[in-house]
Design brief:
The protein has about 180 residues and is of the alpha+beta class. The protein is about 30% helix and about 35% strand.
């Protein structure tokens, strides 16, 4: 990627802050829908990875999950609420890494909020199952890579090489949500 970036104009990098960061997060999360949910992110050891499916993303950019995390994982989350999410969007051109806090909503209002996000009613037996959890991830910061590949002819490719310009529109940068 460094070779590509050296050939591009300097404006390939764009750090995004609250509103724009939240919009980019929503766009990239919606293109992926699944991620690696990495726990033990702040314990100076390799983190554990759980493949998770995104259930919804709200207006504030919070990402909602609903799944079986098991009692051991629940205990780990109660000790360290910081997690890392790793997304791979559409194939090889969109990537997103988010660091943030996860909470396990327990109140009726929080569950109703999730139901609105999912646009369906959660079953009472699911909510009583100790291994199933509703998780709310609040992103604090992250990094994104959003690459758009353009189809170019051999002649255009040669011109780009001479001009030292790339056929890749690549943007990357830091994300700060707060």
């Amino acid at each position: 990627m460094d070779l590509v970036n050296r050939r591009q104009p300097v404006d390939y990098r764009e750090d995004l802050f609250p509103k724009k960061a939240s919009d980019r997060i929503k766009k990239l999360v919606k293109s992926s829908k699944t991620c690696f949910f990495c726990i033990n992110a702040k314990q100076n050891k390799p983190f554990e990875i759980l493949p998770m499916s995104v259930q919804g993303i709200d207006k504030k950019g919070n990402i909602w999950f609903y799944g079986n995390i098991g009692s051991r994982k629940k205990n780990v989350l109660s000790d360290d609420t910081y997690v890392q999410l790793l997304f791979n969007g559409n194939g090889f051109s969109q990537f997103l890494s988010l660091f943030g806090k996860v909470t396990i909503p327990k109140t009726k209002n929080q569950i109703e909020d999730l139901e609105k996000q999912l646009k369906r009613k959660l079953l009472k037996e699911d909510l009583n199952d100790r291994s199933l959890r509703i998780l709310k991830f609040t992103p604090l910061e992250g990094y994104y890579w959003d690459t758009k590949l353009k189809k170019v002819s051999a002649l255009e490719k040669r011109k780009e090489t001479i001009r030292r310009k790339s056929s890749v529109d690549s943007f990357e940068g830091k994300l700060r949500t707060g």
